[in-house]
Amino acid sequence: MQDWKSIPLVRLFLAELQADGDVKGLHKMGLPALTRAMLFTLIVSTASFYSIANTADSASAEICSTALGFDFEACPQDFRASALANSPQQMDILPCEVEDGDCAVSEATYPGKTHYVTFFDVDNQQTLKYAVTTKPGVYDRNNNELITGSQLATAIAPTKQEVNVTAALAEIARLKQSMPQHYQLYRDEDGVIRDASGQLAEARLLHSSALCQTALDYTQTRINCSGALNTDIDNAIARDPNFQSLQAAITKLLHATNQLPSLHRFTAPLANLASFRLVRQFSDSSELVLDVTAIQGAGSIVLNKHASRTTEQRTFAGAMEYGTSGQGSHREAKVVAISGFIPKRCEPVDFSHEDWQLAERVTLARPNGGAEVFNIYRRQDRYITYQQCTGS
């Protein structure tokens, strides 16, 4: 015997009550009591059934790509099946019973509606569009099927505006692919700063080259590495023709998508396409990673603490929470000593001064008087920083 709660009309009524928050005692209600409670709903709702089945056509869109970044998913293998899955289905229930002979219905009364689904396949530079015609399944109140519902997806030609959007997205993807090479900077074995393509990059770090000697320098206010590097980044993107082209393409694309309501939900991800990751590798093997976003003259530069690494390849986030076990350069050791964000350990009583030589003693004045003293020790090309604690 069929569970009475699975009858389409009952499901509809239960869903309405749940949507309204009126769920107290819902599942304890018997079928006779539920039938009486549903009667008023049936009377009020019957007049709306016809309009539901004949609502205006709708549209949706999917931008799919593996080249645009994590905000976008890869394209489906079967576009037609995806169009069907992304189109709303319909069900209608009439307040009548087949047994009573008062369920005279006609398919002409339920012509269904069409939902348009457009796929902007950026990687393959193609625009696919489907018209999905959905006819509702119609039932009487006892769950007897009166009209069988159906869905049919038909490929149709996209509009010129939609094709232009795909072309614009493909151009943006091409421009973005050139960004990582231009903004991955390292110092070669001769001490010369280059980008990932091997091009000289000294001019791009005009202000920060001397101030930023290790990745942790960016976190310090005593060393204006961050301000100088931010200035260099601003100047670099202002002079970068590829980035200027990217910004112009995104601005143009956003204007075009404003004319396509189905793409409005992509406004934020599309605007975020004007972002890139700057990676600065230092000679001591530390690595600074900055997330840069700039569009229409406004921009932000944010330190990525989870991607930036110390010389021992500990993330900045980990170093700031747990401290470091050692450092790979004197500069990094000194930054650790003066940093208010990186925990330091007290120097052990039994620390071996034979293996480690004192490289520098750093004294920091406390705001409320007194001072903190940190010892930086060196053994070959490794460093370790301890705080002088009372009783150590």
Keywords, please?
392 residues; alpha/beta
Which stretches are low in confidence, meaning pLDDT under 50 for 5 or more residues running?
4-55
Radius of gyration based on Cα positions: 33 Å
β-strand percent reads 25-35%
Mean pLDDT: 81
Number of strands: 16
Shape call: elongated
End-to-end separation in angstroms reads 81 Å
Helix content: 25-40%
Q: What multimeric state do the chains show?
A: single chain
Spatial order of the strands in the main sheet?
Answer: 9-8-10-11-12
Structural class: alpha/beta
Note the main sheet.
5 strands, mixed
H/E element string?
HHEHEEEEEEHHEEHHHEEEHHEEEE
Count up the helices.
Answer: 10
Tell me what you see in this structure.
By secondary structure, this protein is of the alpha/beta class. It is 30% helix and 25% strand. It contains ten helices and 16 strands. The chain has a five-stranded mixed sheet with strand order 9-8-10-11-12. Strands 1-3-4-7 form a four-stranded mixed sheet. Strands 13-16-15-14 form a four-stranded mixed sheet, with helices on one face. It starts with 7 loop residues before the first helix and ends in a 5-residue tail after the last strand.
